[in-house]
Amino acid sequence: CPECTLEKLAVTVEDVEGGKVPAKVAAFIQAHPEIDYIQFTFGDLLPGVEAALQSAGIEGVKFTGVQSNPTIVKEIIEGKVAAWTAQPQQFQGWISTDAAIRVAQGLPLTKYEQSGEIPTWVIDSKSAAEQVLEEGGEWPGPAGFEEKFEKLWGL
Fold this sequence. Notes:
The protein is α/β, with parallel strands linked by helices. The chain is built from eight helices and four strands. Helix content is 45%, strand content 10%.
């Protein structure tokens, strides 16, 4: 969106390891009160941030991020997290196997195998999060992918 802006907050491994991320985020938001969303680059940055913002009297900031895990999915259901992406780890393993088979047989790679990109699901509702939890807390991949690969491979 043309009117949207992006501010970055650098954190170090030492910040994550030392539990300093929540306080750093709270201080950053205090200095930038116009921020409505925090986008986390991985799930381990999230724990403690909600409490730190509450302690600082900050309300209304929504959390989003990349590569969900079962804890984050539960927080979407509870309304603590607005949205998070899920990458299909199981699908990625199957597509890697398919790529190895194709290379060994001199066959062309699929678009995913050529680009290295995999599908992503944005979990942004309670119902979507509940579906992910029903599947074990992580999104395995597009529906029916295992059967499609097995058919392709003649299994």
